[in-house]
Amino acid sequence: MGNKKVILDHVEEHDDDTVPSIHLDLWYPDVKGNTRAIVIGLMDVRAADDIRVSYDKERDGWKIEQASTFKWEADDPVCDPDWQEVAFIQAWAREKTECLQCGNLNQPTRKQCEKCNAILEGGKDD
Ligand SMILES: [Zn+2]
After folding, report:
1. pTM for the predicted model, two decimal places
2. Cα–Cα–Cα angle for 11, 6, 26, nearest 5°?
3. pLDDT value at position 25?
4. In this structure, which residues have their CB less than 5 angstroms from ion ligand 1?
């Protein structure tokens, strides 16, 4: 079992956004026994396969998986949904880059400062 109670105790509802949403965090997913992934499903007139979201520490980003198997034989010893990665999102993909010359915060894709044209040193690792 995971740490569902801790996760659910800290769920926040964002009603003020243009997209009403629920915010929940994985709490220390590497700690033994803690929840390691969140499965998101859709309940609607249309169907969509669930996605499973987990944090990949090695690659520093979010791993998104989908299953391929949804039915098993009654005597199947292991009912493996075959979760496989379908997308990966860098943890800091949208982080703005601060210009060391003028302090301007630039859009993540910029190589030169929007304000003073200085060459930007890159992302968070610099
Ligand atoms: Zn600048």
Report:
1. 0.81
2. 70
3. 97
4. 99, 101-102, 104, 113, 115-116, 118
